[in-house]
Design a protein that fits this description.
This protein is of the alpha/beta class. It has one domain (10-59, 76-207, 230-309): TIM Barrel. The protein contains nine helices and 16 strands. It has helices at 32-35, 82-93, 109-128, 157-170, 186-195, 234-245, 261-269, 280-283, 287-302, and strands spanning 10-12, 15-17, 21-23, 45-47, 64-67, 70-73, 99-104, 136-140, 175-178, 200-203, 207-209, 212-213, 218-219, 226-229, 252-255, 274-277. The strands form four sheets. It has an eight-stranded parallel β-barrel, surrounded by six helices. Helix 7 links the parallel strand 15 and strand 16. Helix 4 packs parallel to helix 5 (186-195) and helix 7 (261-269) packs across helix 9 (287-302). It is globular, with a radius of gyration of 18 Å.
């Protein structure tokens, strides 16, 4: 039987996560479907499907393609837009006993600013009525599947700085910035985010990849390239998380190829405060609950009373 006095809590600013298991944006929707499978209160948090100021239809053609030890996706940030999210999905989020994170994308800096402002206004209104639905914004400057914005802001630190600075000024909510593995210097990028007032950074987003249909003699994807995720990228993600943790004092949320409790523990030992689970949700619909239980089991077996004992232990 797993001990009940284990301390699995994690902290980003004033936000407390009951455990380090957070569902990654784009792999969990807003939680409704998975909530029919298991109790979402078992999770540390949910980063919802990426939203933008205006609705997006996403990319045409094939959007997901399985690869050895992973998958390529070219969804292209399909979403209903911020207004629909605030009017409909937040009603569900108000009922959840877990940390709720809005993943905010954009095509222009003004899109990001206006999106953050609307989320902030709605959050303040709900909070005043005792019905909080959003705890944090995850600023997505690292999506490789859109032609405008997205990863274009996440490559060069000098370009990303303005986005982070403007969004930080547009919201009072805690801000986490999602970083691209394609950044020129991801540790430098993380350090800039800290300088501009971000409470945390999350990494890595998918790695840009490609698949060619040899019979059709063309790329499988209409957008040519797509984002690679899954176990194949875990060693890269782990290395980058460790490097970033050496450079910043704000919390780091790690992700990339986690598919068991031991994978998760590796990220914590590399310095991550918490982790996000993405592709594994498509392999195991109860991934969140299983990983949360697996972390407690590992701690009990190893005699670890608190995750803080092993965080950044390398």
């Amino acid at each position: 039987m797993i001990e009940t006095n284990l301390d699995t809590t994690c902290h980003i600013g004033e936000v407390t996560f009951k455990n380090p298991v957070v569902m990654a944006s784009g792999t969990f929707g807003f939680g409704r479907e998975y909530g029919r499978v298991y109790d979402l209160s078992k999770l540390g948090g949910i980063s919802g499907k990426g939203i933008t100021l205006h609705p997006r239809p996403g990319n045409p053609g094939i959007r997901v393609y399985e690869t050895p030890s992973g998958m390529l996706n070219s969804v292209g940030l399909e979403n209903p837009g911020i207004q629909t999210f605030l009017q409909e999905e937040c009603l569900f989020w108000e009922t959840l006993d877990t940390v709720r994170i809005v993943n905010l994308g954009g095509g222009t800096i003004q899109d990001y600013i206006e999106g953050a402002r609307l989320i902030d206004e709605d959050s303040n209104r709900r909070s005043a009525a005792g019905r909080r639905a959003v705890d944090m914004i995850e600023l997505n400057i690292s999506c490789p599947n859109v032609k405008a914005g997205g990863m274009a802001y996440g490559i060069k630190t000098s370009i990303a700085r303005e986005v982070v600075r403007e969004v930080r000024a547009a919201t009072t909510l805690p801000l986490m910035v999602k970083l691209s593995p394609n950044a020129e210097d991801i540790a430098d990028m993380a350090q800039m985010c800290e300088q501009e007032g971000a409470e945390a950074v999350s990494l890595i987003n998918t790695v840009s990849g490609m698949k060619i249909d040899v019979h059709r003699r063309r790329s499988v994807f209409e957008n040519l390239y797509a984002g690679l995720s899954g176990p194949a990228i875990k060693p890269i993600a782990l290395r980058m998380v460790h490097q970033v943790c050496q450079r910043v004092s704000i919390p780091v949320v790690g992700m990339g190829g986690i598919s068991c409790a031991e994978d998760l523990i590796e990220f914590v030992m590399a310095g991550a405060e918490a982790v996000q689970i993405g592709t594994y949700n498509f392999v195991n619909v109860q991934a969140g609950a299983d990983l949360a239980a697996g972390v407690e089991r590992f701690m009990a077996e190893e005699g670890i009373a608190s995750l803080s004992e092993i965080r950044g232990i390398l």
